[in-house]
From TrEMBL, chains A, B, C, D:
Encoding gene per record: thyX
Organism: Pontivivens insulae
EC number: 2.1.1.148
Cofactor note: Binds 4 FAD per tetramer. Each FAD binding site is formed by three monomers.
Pathway in which this enzyme or protein is active: Pyrimidine metabolism; dTTP biosynthesis
InterPro entries: Thymidylate_synthase_ThyX, Thymidylate_synthase_ThyX_sf
Name of the protein this chain belongs to: Flavin-dependent thymidylate synthase
Length: 302, 302, 302, 302
């Protein structure tokens, strides 16, 4: 359960206070505001604030005085053009702020995206809750035998049970000892900034994360991708659902040009042109390495 | 006159459409939205959008679920603490988007602040207007005789008149030739991306500029400072008036700790401690250079 | 002539002083160091310093203790893999510092690349030289009739002559007046920070520019592209020649995957798969806009 | 022991290969190159590469053709001026690349400094070593009773022993289970990207970290400060020793203006001026909060 009743009450209170504004406003995003979208066993994504909408992108691209053209079709065409030609600055004119609760090992991947603003819950200052990510049985995957950083088949039977026992047992023991070290009951109590080092990477943390739409798309392209680790991909997927409601035209262009598209090297284009001309091309004749050829063929199959 | 009737009509239309929102809203900023605050002879600053308020700063610092504490005093104290200790990330949680019209030589200084989002009016794509910055008589300053990058006394009489004549005359001739080169009347017409190079640095450009509050404060500290060039300082001053209405507590802390404060080197602190103990300190005995000593004395006078 | 004899002497002196170092060193880059590669009529690009080589990329990707594998082939394969999968951080481990002299309107495009370090010659502090970019006849292009931000045919005869006359005449007059305003001969002399605003955008400036290899590749992809304005493309081309000597394996991968490659949208991939299966696809049946279809066909032709 | 014999051999090999270069070279830094400076129980800091020296700072500030002035005193004066007036861009012209081995909880603080390049050892791809930070007895501090994010007295006797037992025991058990989950001996073996989540935050990781001198000074100001957590401060201290040998003039200015200096708010300056005029000022009459007054008094004592 990601939220306590007190936390839910604070969220409900915030959702009760509507204000008048002259700013660009998106009804679909107002419906998301403050609510917790649950992710994994204790995590969530909450929209705290947003700036701009689809029109804000074209308004900035045109440096216009008002809202830009009335014709929605023109705006969509321009947005597609900007996305196709990597004109990224107009997308930077939209901004979103999220409150995210997530395991530390996910946070460590996430923070690598540097062009964003972050305020994380401080374990030097405060005490972390007893909340750990324990995978569901169907996500307990074996090491991939073909990909050094991927997953293979799902673990079965005894091995799965033993793994879950270890994860659960070690998490609970680590937290018991964390509490025991912090306790000032008849002792001084270890500094919080030291005690926290006993907690494993599946403990939950939380942060406020603010990012512009261009950099968010970059994050989503990498993290909503099938090669991303499952535990961060579910966060990216949850954010995709939000962005779809926030800037539908920009999101559709993103899906078409980034998520659903493909890119080819000069060697790949050579091969492609020969194939379209009816020639047979093999890995050897293409000049590509085996790995590259495998990816090339996968792209063409879709 | 910075705005045409058409532009004013677009602005009025945008100000007429109020929406309901659950987001943090600041009445003082709503009053600024879209309006043009005039700067220099043809320039302006307009607020296009904003995200967050004073509470958003403390909410992020506490990573809280709702709006944070009800006690305004606690929020102010926390904001002052964050500012004093250079905890900059909570201030990054507020964002502002401005539409600015400004001379190119001012734009060239402004753009040096890299942590911001910019969309500038494109002179490759569009034709610039016949608008040039011509200083008012009281800002026509001589080169400073003590500061290599500063101004001295105001120019007088014939010299002032001659300078203004040159600036006005060259601007108009440059624009006449710009138009003549672009003209397709009985000729091909030079490419816009080439013709623009004839325009001097006092021609006006415009852009959308979006920045978070931490980086905006950094900009204001340097550009609203008495050492900044007058022509960018007036923009910074206009923005200060806006920020004061947006995040009053954060702005008050900024004024106290950044704009009104002073900093001393280790040598300066040595001197200060001796002076407080009743000793006489001179430039020679302080170990400071002449320039540093002059600044030290100026700080103490205020 | 981009360099005075004094400047050339300073460069020669710097090239005369060889030192011993344990750092990664690239003989091909040592040959470039400090020399001015001429660009346009008065501009240049000079390599001032560099950090890293091809091995530094793979060393960082492997977080290794020494230089990484001895097998050059393994390093090349890894570099190609990193480039293909947008693993950008290992490329950030190489850094280059350039001294560039360039017209102001080129500098204004260039500075939009924010992830770099810049120190520009200050026209508040110093006096600019009488050096202006005047295009050669074959680069005096008309506005494109199909592309709002492109060039068409080269101007001919009288029109070309008149354009050159205006550019030359206005540049010289602007500089004469710049000098006249600055002059302290019998008058106060206008502040340099004001006088400079009379100078047109084809005046030369110069700066030190430092950037990592990943961000440099991003710059080169956009600016060495055929859609970039000619006057910035020649700088990008000159830098490409340098990078080729500095990190040959990384540059080859960049050429293959970025410069010579192509990318397709989801709609484009649909069309491609149908074409490979022998179906006929038209703009209408593809779902692409006319502009997108034109670019799609151009990619396939190569 | 932070290095294995193999690793030491790789380092020795790299130190054996000296090359000729025309680049700026600093003998003091050459002596540091590749060597491991030990930090904590298993950590280290190694200089992998560097770009620039003190002269590179002034050369960029002057945008000069050669090495700048011959007079070392002039360079020092200019460096002090740049530091005093927050002219940060010339310091960005120097760059350093480090290889650092550090506990994960230290890495999590460190990575918050976003303007840097990082390649971390991947626990998705590789298996981490059995190395955990276990504090020495004298660093086993109690929670501070006055500062929510600080340390108080050192733990004694039984409490200290119990804390060390827990840290050591949990680390070893977590690693035993990590190995057991990964093992493919008679089972599939859990994916590395999942198994790693069992490891606590005191496990060691390592990365290549590259940063410019301006941003490094910012890091050092915050992390070599007495308020920083001890475990990151020792890394900052080790880096300070390196920087001192690399850019002695810049480091001296940094020490004087940043580390040894103090800053005062407008209220602080008011109080200071009154005190210099012989008036008595108290916390109440100063308008400062208790916390601010305490820091003000501490600054004056030094």
């Amino acid at each position: 359960m990601p939220l306590t009743p007190d936390q839910q009450a604070e969220i409900d209170a915030a959702r009760g206070e509507s204000q008048q504004t002259l700013r660009a406003t998106v009804p679909g995003m107002e419906a998301h505001l403050y609510k917790a979208h649950e992710v994994l066993d204790h995590g969530f994504v909450r929209v705290i604030d947003y700036m701009g909408d689809d029109s804000a992108i074209t308004q900035a691209a045109r440096v216009s005085y008002g809202k830009g053209t009335k014709a929605v079709q023109n705006d969509e065409g321009l947005i597609r053009y900007l996305m196709r030609h990597w004109h990224s600055t107009p997308f930077e004119m939209c901004e979103i702020k999220l409150h995210v609760k997530l395991p530390v090992f996910v946070a460590r991947q996430w923070i690598r995206h540097r062009t964003a603003n972050v305020n994380e819950y401080s374990a030097r200052y405060s005490i972390l809750d007893r909340e750990f990510y324990i995978p569901q049985a169907e996500h307990l995957a074996a090491q991939s035998t073909v990909n050094n950083q991927g997953r293979g088949a799902v673990l079965q039977g005894e091995e799965a049970a033993r793994v879950l026992d270890m994860l659960r047992g070690d998490s609970m023991r680590a937290y018991d000892h964390y509490e025991a070290m912090l306790s000032q009951d008849g002792q001084d109590g270890l500094a919080r900034e030291l005690a926290r080092m006993n907690l494993p990477a599946n403990v939950y943390t939380q942060w406020y994360w603010k990012v512009d739409l261009h950099n968010l798309f970059h994050f989503l392209r990498l993290r909503a991708d099938s090669h991303a680790q499952y535990e961060i991909r579910v966060y990216a997927d949850a954010i995709c659902e939000v962005v779809k409601d926030w800037v539908p035209a920009a999101y559709a262009a993103f899906e078409d040009y980034r998520m659903g598209g493909a890119q080819f090297s000069a060697r790949g284009m050579d091969a492609l042109r020969k194939m379209l001309a009816g020639e047979t091309v093999t890995q050897e004749s293409s000049g590509m390495s085996k790995g590259e050829w495998r990816e090339f063929e996968a792209s063409l199959k879709g």
